[in-house]
Amino acid sequence: MTDAQETAADPALRTTGGAPPDDVETAPIPLLEPREGIPPVVETDDALARVIAAFAAGTGPVAVDAERASGYRYGQRAYLVQLRRAGAGTALIDPVGCPDLSGLGEALGDAEWILHAATQDLPCLREIGMTPTRLFDTELAGRLAGFPRVGLGAMVENVLGFALEKGHSAVDWSTRPLPEPWLRYAALDVELLVDLRDALEKELDRQGKLDWAHQEFDAIASAPPAPPRKDPWRRTSGMHKVRRRRQMAAVRELWNTRDSVAQRRDVSPGKVLSDTAIVEASLALPVNVHALTALPGFGHRMGRRQLEQWQAAVDRAKSLPDSELPQPGQPVSGPPPPRSWADKDPEAAARLSAARAAVSAQAERLNMPQENLITPDTVRRVCWEPPSDPTPDAVATALLHHGARPWQVHQVAPALSQALTP
């Protein structure tokens, strides 16, 4: 690190609960090159073996990041994995050439992984055999510490005083070979994660929130993989316009056809057919390909074979018996949408209003987002079916039952008890 880098990265100069002190120069220093230069991309088993040995011999926490090709490829697989550790330097690994990184995951043992927005990267890392036992999420740490902007660039700038170039965040990372500017960007993403982690740890400790953060990190690390979403076609953008069951069946048929095509071609579903086109075709239920062509999203650029496959999907929906048509809405586990509470249960609506106000006030006192203090879903569940005697202990038990962490229970149970008391 240069003298300027060390000065800017000194946590004592930058970390002040979400904003730099008034008497410190805040102009960020552009971070243009990795300390040891851009490392070669690891694409072979021999190169991977050398990286595994180096990182196993390294010390301290491991900075980890992954780049996906969202919007370009099907799914959320990783197309580049970046790591950095003291004693090992930075590594850039191509999961296309090295699809099994379980050996690297094992070599890291129980080392703490540092990730930014861990829940975004963990699924694609698990697919290639990398799962942490301990982690530190710098984005979540920033939220708990009260920083108003928690993107990696904003955090590095506000805490460490560096400006990261973020122009390549949304590029097609499945491109091969990867251009040098992209590799530089990728290496810089893990360049200061350890420094950022150390600074945020000190700030959380200063605010008395470090144990809270550890509870949150442990919850993320121990959470099982999310199950497949039921009826994912219901999340089609513009679905609120579709009212009739026959039209809903058309959305389902078109969505499933698009998904199969996208998976087979390994492209983003939106590049195969837009959500807007699916909704338009479902509302119109065209009688033939000619009528389909007149709809938005099915123009002259689309080949005859493509048009016929979309029309076939619509025709399948039109021919279904009523018994096989989807039902409106999704099966709901838990309370109904809050907008209906006033009609269904006015007392529950009053409880929810009071509870929301109590959570908002407590979050403001603690200088953190309400959803990090306690999830809105947990609040709704406790308000819909409160304990018969909503004492603080009873509310605490209910919160724990719904997955709240002990620190959250301690912070909100007394306030929620008051809100739930008639």
Short key terms for the protein model shown above:
two-stranded parallel sheet; Nucleotidyltransferase, domain 5; RNase_D-like; disordered N terminus; 8 strands; flat; 422 residues; alpha/beta; HRDC-like_sf; DNA polymerase, domain 1; six-stranded mixed β-sheet; 3 domains; nucleotide binding; 3'-5' exonuclease activity
Write a structural description:
The protein is α/β, with parallel strands linked by helices and 422 residues long. It has three domains: 3-222, 2-Layer Sandwich (Nucleotidyltransferase, domain 5); 232-324, HRDC domain (DNA polymerase, domain 1, Orthogonal Bundle), CATH 1.10.150.80; 338-420, HRDC domain (DNA polymerase, domain 1, Orthogonal Bundle), CATH 1.10.150. Helices cover 51% and strands 9% of the residues. The protein has 21 helices and eight strands. It has helices at residues 3-9, 11-14, 45-57, 102-107, 118-127, 138-145, 152-160, 180-191, 193-206, 210-222, 245-265, 269-272, 275-284, 289-293, 304-319, 341-344, 346-366, 370-373, 376-384, 392-401, 406-420; strands at 29-30, 41-42, 59-68, 78-86, 89-93, 112-115, 134-137, 162-163. The strands form two sheets. The protein has a six-stranded mixed beta sheet with strand order 2-5-4-3-6-7, with helices on both faces.
